[in-house]
Amino acid sequence: KAGVTQTPRYLIKTRGQQVTLSCSPISGHRSVSWYQQTPGQGLQFLFEYFSETQRNKGNFPGRFSGRQFSNSRSEMNVSTLELGDSALYLCASSPNLRGRAGELFFGEGSRLTVL
Amino acid sequence: GQQVMQIPQYQHVQEGEDFTTYCNSSTTLSNIQWYKQRPGGHPVFLIQLVKSGEVKKQKRLTFQFGEAKKNSSLHITATQTTDVGTYFCAGPREYGNKLVFGAGTILRVKS
């Protein structure tokens, strides 16, 4: 079974631009979560989608948004990029049976550099 | 809000020495998960503990969940160079898959 796939793996943007990251979960997994990882802040939860609905949201500004499609693939978008948005963005999928937090399967991440 | 604290932040050990990282939550957890992230890699699930006082072993790794379900530990016996990486604990918050991660413990092993 293929793992979680994230694209692009690396990207460089300038301040003020916007970026869209994509995540394809493991087949059959309906829950997709996004995390931001930085050396200073560790792993910070962005949001979680389940069956195309945002189920949980972290404490990030409205510039960070996401969505999930009917095939469970997810995208996240960051608008008006700031230098502090430079980070590794990790997507994680889970079968999330019975609505309980279970094992997360992480992708390799998209490393965003904002200049 | 819920916080998950992890200590130590760094640990450098000689190969063959033991290693322990500790995790403490400000609230009772329904379960706790542990992940390992190799340098340059992504977090990989190690284990989930659910029951109060639970102890699980995976070869040289021993995981414990506290009686009050607010703390946990990961102990590695006789570390090897393959153990290097960052070890994270994580507890669920609210409904669904929102996990609150500890800051992680970076393990370096000197051979």
General description of the model:
In chain A, strands 2, 4, 5, 6, 9, 10 and 11 form a seven-stranded mixed beta sheet that branches. Chain A is globular. Chain A has no helices and eleven strands. Chain A has 115 residues and is mostly beta strands. Chain A is 0% helix and 52% strand. Chain B is mostly beta strands and 111 residues long. Helices cover 0% and strands 54% of the residues of chain B. Chain B is built from no helices and eleven strands. Chain B has strands at 4-7, 10-14, 19-25, 32-37, 44-49, 55-58, 61-65, 71-76, 85-92, 99-101, 105-110. In chain B, strands 2, 4, 5, 9, 10 and 11 form a six-stranded mixed beta sheet that branches. A five-stranded antiparallel beta sheet of chain B has the order 1-3-8-7-6, with no helix packed on it. The radius of gyration of chain B is 13 Å and the shape is globular.
Summarize this structure as a short list of keywords or feature phrases.
heterodimer, A: 115 residues, mainly beta, seven-stranded mixed beta sheet, four-stranded antiparallel beta sheet, 11 strands, 0% helix, B: 111 residues, six-stranded mixed beta sheet, five-stranded antiparallel beta sheet
Detail the topology: elements first, then pairings:
The complex is a heterodimer of chains A (115) and B (111).
Chain A: E1 5-7, E2 10-13, E3 19-24, E4 31-38, E5 42-50, E6 53-57, E7 64-68, E8 74-78, E9 87-94, E10 105-106, E11 110-114
Parallel strand pairs in A: 2-11
Antiparallel strand pairs in A: 1-3, 3-8, 4-5, 4-9, 5-6, 7-8, 9-10, 9-11
Chain B: E1 4-7, E2 10-14, E3 19-25, E4 32-37, E5 44-49, E6 55-58, E7 61-65, E8 71-76, E9 85-92, E10 99-101, E11 105-110
Parallel strand pairs in B: 2-11
Antiparallel strand pairs in B: 1-3, 3-8, 4-5, 4-9, 6-7, 7-8, 9-10, 9-11
